[in-house]
Amino acid sequence: MLEKRNSEGYPDPTAYEALLRIELAAKASAFRPMVFICSPFAGDIAGNTEKARFYSRFAVTRNCIPIAPHLLFPQFMDDSDPFQRDLAIFMGLVLLSKCLELWVFGETVTTGMSVELAKAKQRDIRIRYFTEQLEEVDAP
Q: Residue 49: which of 65, 19, 73 has the closest Cα?
């Protein structure tokens, strides 16, 4: 904790302000926004899971915290059960609301992805598009 007084108990506003600015700068440089990873899951589940991991690693290299619900929820929920799928999509949308941006990967937009995109637009969350090779492109 920063002290406004020096070691002898006298007010030392100059040192305090300097140390406070250093501390704030360090916190600012450590800021990592959460980004929602939006990519296909259904179909080639094994291949799409590997791609989602690849996209998540890419987000980390961009100093972001990736949120990829399609990597988490299928571990304990059944995507083929309509109730569980709807619940997983709902929970993913809750996580989306905590993210600064939504990153779309690839050219294919699945039904689940379209729900996520619509919610991001509704909430004015910035949407960025990337190719499967991680090149950023304009919105389709």
A: 73
82-96 and 111-122 helices, crossing angle to 10°: 30
pLDDT digits (tens, 9 = 90+) for 2-53: 677 777 788 878 877 887 777 776 666 668 899 999 999 988 999 999 999 9
Domain limits at 21? 1-30
Q: How many CB atoms lie within 10 A of CB 130?
A: 19
Is the pLDDT reported for residue 57 higher than 90?
yes
Residue 84 Cα distances to 9, 111, 116, angstroms: 62, 15, 17
Same domain, 46 and 92: yes
| Number of compact structural domains in the chain | 2
Measured CA to CA, the distance from residue 29 to residue 63 in angstroms comes to 10
User: What is the pTM assigned to this prediction?
Assistant: 0.79
Q: What is the mean pLDDT of the chain?
A: 91
Question: How far apart are alpha carbons 107 and 91 in whole angstroms?
Answer: 24
